[in-house]
Amino acid sequence: MKLTFLGTGNLDRSTEKSDDPITNAYHKGGKDHRAFNCLFLNGVCVDYPEDAPEQLEKYKLKPRAIILTHGHYDHASGLKKPTTIPVYAQQTTFDLLSSYPITHKRIVRAGQGILLYGIKYFTFPVKHSFTSPSMGMKFGKVTLVGDCGEVDPMVILKTTGQRIVITDGASLSKKIVSDKGIEQHESILEQMNKFKSKGIKHLVFTGMGVRTLYPHEKLEIALNQYADKINADYQVSVAFDGMEINV
Ligand SMILES: [Zn+2]
Under CATH, what is the fold of the domain 2-238? Predict the structure, then answer.
């Protein structure tokens, strides 16, 4: 089965008009151009930001269900436009999106499984935001962590022995903590340390932001060199829009 990354950037992408040449790399196209966070698997869109409809059309994919990890703009803003596709999310996520015209709500408790078209998505809570609680999910050999402020023992437990882990790529070496600590993103290097020796074969970073806007290939090479240095047993990929992996 094929998992397609439709969007691999976070909200920092909105710094579009910056004079900073690194930031502007986003807009040169190719692997450095990133739509907002969105994945597609077997008829299911995980997260649905404003550019999701465009990306779905580009890759000729039709979602039959949407699962939201959380309610942040770069994950859910596509639902500002009405859709008849059922949306699976936590009640807190729907509360946050109460001004959006979402009619087909399916409430999920983090910890609950969702069976969609023959695949079971085992959800679990992820520490990322106090105002917009997030959930990750495990399906088949994949653990999708998504935006994550701290890879906690719960996530590690869900991940141990999993073949592929898809996680937060917003920051390279320093944890991001927003005002009053409301939102947090664990750094890539810290996560690489935490995920080593867990039987993971492939660690994929997505949700890249201004702090990780290195030229794509250079960042990926540097991260794999770091994996060698810490004797990690996984290969590292930096996701890009249109990337596909078999799961
Ligand atoms: Zn977020």
Answer: Metallo-beta-lactamase; Chain A (3.60.15)
